[in-house]
């Protein structure tokens, strides 16, 4: 797969939980098919942030630096932070309840 071009989808950072989850699943799928280091995964994903997502992400990184915390530098941490921002808590409990019933 060395000759395959990797195309990460754009993420605008809208308040559409389904759009975020769809983006994350597509990106995870791409990363699962490639042997990237966690730091490279985070960089590839963040390059495709546009609009609000880009402004928000840059603020997260600057704020962490200002507070003398490490900048986010892995895909795993990035997923946790983006999920906290773009998936509301009520969506999580609704999602979990649906699967508890099934």
Largest sheet: none
Helix vs. strand class: mainly alpha
Distance linking N and C termini: 38 Å
Give helix and strand order, one letter per element, not per position. HHHHH
3D structure, described in words:
By secondary structure, the chain is mainly α. The protein has one domain. It is 65% helix and 0% strand. The chain contains 5 helices and no strands. The chain has helices at 17-32, 38-47, 52-66, 75-86, 89-101. The chain is globular. The N and C termini lie far apart (38 Å).
Notable characteristics:
mainly alpha, 102 residues, 5 helices
Give a short summary of the structure.
The chain is mainly α.
Q: How is the topology of this model organized?
A:
Blueprint: H1 17-32, H2 38-47, H3 52-66, H4 75-86, H5 89-101
């Amino acid at each position: 797969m060395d000759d395959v071009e990797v195309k990460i989808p754009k993420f605008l950072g809208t308040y559409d939980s389904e759009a975020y989850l769809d983006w994350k699943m597509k990106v995870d799928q791409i990363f699962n098919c490639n042997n990237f280091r966690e730091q490279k995964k985070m960089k590839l994903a963040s390059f495709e942030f546009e609009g609000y997502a880009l402004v928000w992400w840059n603020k997260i990184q600057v704020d962490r630096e200002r507070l003398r915390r490490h900048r986010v530098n892995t895909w795993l941490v990035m997923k946790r932070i983006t999920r906290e921002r773009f998936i509301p808590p009520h969506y999580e409990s609704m999602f979990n309840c649906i699967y508890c019933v099934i």
